[in-house]
Amino acid sequence: MGTFMLKAGETFGIKAEMLGLDIDHQLKILNDLYHGKVEFDKDSFLENKIDVKRHYRRGIKRDVICIKWVADDIDDLKLPECEYIAAQVLFKESYKGKLRTLRLPRCLKKVDFYTIDLKVKYIENLVIPPETEYVDDNVCKIEKENADGSVSEMKMRLECDWVPYLDD
Amino acid sequence: MSTFMKEEGKMFSKTAASLGWDVDRQIKELNNIYSGKVEFSRYNYSEYLERHSRPAICINWSADDIEDLELPECKFIRMIALFDPNYVGNIKTIRLPYCLKSVNVDEMCSGLSMRMLQGLSEHFVSKDIKLHKVVIRSGTKLKSVEGCTIVREFEDGSIKKEKLVITQCTVYERI
Questions:
Q1: Residue B106 has what DSSP assignment?
Q2: What is the C-alpha to C-alpha distance for residues A56 and A50, in angstroms, rounded to an integer?
Q3: Under DSSP, is residue A77 helix (H, G, I), strand (E, B) or coil?
Q4: N or C: which end of chain A has fewer CB within 10 A?
């Protein structure tokens, strides 16, 4: 089974920008383009903005387009070039599908290991294109020594939930 | 910098068992063996839904020149409490003892959060200090959530793959 991608998806970002389409309009067109194969939906997440000087943190709501459903015969999907696709929310909570590989669009400027959508654990491969900056700070490497002497490596991500610390 | 380890540390578990030392005695002996290099202390933790707390031996302090430490074989060393909340030191790599039967990544996460807590609370005033590597022995069973593989493509056509283990923990911010 090859990678499922649409030619129209490759130029979608440019067209949407030229026509000044908002997120709802882009979502509608994407669902028309991928009809019967992939269904997208709208979601949102809070993007953290930290003011280092004031020790202040605030969340800014960002709307995104994510995958809601994928046809059973698609296990490898290349996402369309779309400004509303973000690594923080790639799948809807109610996602249904048999995807094993997800290829991110080239228009995605940055992927932060620290904030990647937790739901990617349901797929096997997340492919990041060469143009995309990949940040993997704030992770701890786990080395597992195997019986044959080889070493397998993993990375552990800490999902931080900032709540007040209570002194005893 | 090479791995700091003590030969006595490798036999410690057997010695302690044969002499019937309790946790406090084991801390005292470990602090004598590692004197001037590493200091251990007692940490009481509770398993999930368990009323009674269990003792663990954790790292309280390590000398500035130690970045890579092999922990002694000791049955009171637990992933859930590797570092004391007041830990001071520069450890970046920690090598777990062979006597550790299994490691739960979620448990490890909460154990490391103590260390992370320090790093994160100091994040605004100094550089972020954190543990870079945890080495798990071949005999230790690793329980983890199977994550997805991050495939990084490069301009020259090459690819790099790394396994992603996703866990969640709560890191508390000191106000």
A1: H
A2: 6
A3: strand
A4: C
The answer to whether ipTM exceeds 0.90 is no
Read off the pLDDT of residues B39-80 as tens digits, 9 standing for 90 and up: 999 988 766 556 677 888 988 899 999 989 999 999 999 877
Strands, E assignment, chain A = 38-51, 56-70, 76-78, 91-96, 101-103, 110-112, 125-128, 133-135, 139-145, 151-159, 163-164
Residues A141 and A154: beta-carbon distance below 8 Å: yes
Are B148 and A125 in contact by the 8 Å Cβ rule? The answer is: yes
Domain boundaries, chain B: 7-144
Q: Which of A103, A84, A2, A97 is nearest to A43 (CA)?
A: A84
C-alpha to C-alpha distance for B57 and B40, rounded to whole angstroms: 6
Question: What does residue A101 show for φ and ψ, rounded to 5 degrees?
Answer: -130, 135
Q: How far is A153 from chain B (nearest CA, A)?
A: 7
Report, in angstroms and rounded to the nearest whole number, the Rg of chain A calculated over CA atoms. Answer: 18
Calculate how close chain B gets to A143, using CA atoms only, in Å. Answer: 5
Residue A115's CB is within 10 A of a number of other CB atoms, namely 19
Whether residues B173 and A164 touch (CB distance < 8 A) is answered with yes
The single residue listed with the structure tokens 């209570």 is A166
Q: Judge whether A115 and A125 are in contact, CB under 8 Å.
A: no
The model's pTM:
0.69
> How many CB atoms are closer than 10 A to CB B51?
6
Q: B80 phi and psi, to 5 degrees?
A: -70, -20
Residue at B87: amino acid letter: Y
Name which of B134, B152, B169 is nearest A142 (Cβ-Cβ).
Answer: B134
Q: Tell me, what's the pLDDT at A99?
A: 92
Q: Of B138, B167, B170, which has the smallest distance from its Cβ to A157's Cβ?
A: B167
Q: β-strands A91-96, A110-112: how paired?
A: unpaired
List of chain B residues with pLDDT < 50: 113-129, 169-175
What's the count of helices (H) and strands (E) in chain A, helices before strands?
3, 11
Whether the predicted pLDDT of A20 surpasses 80:
yes
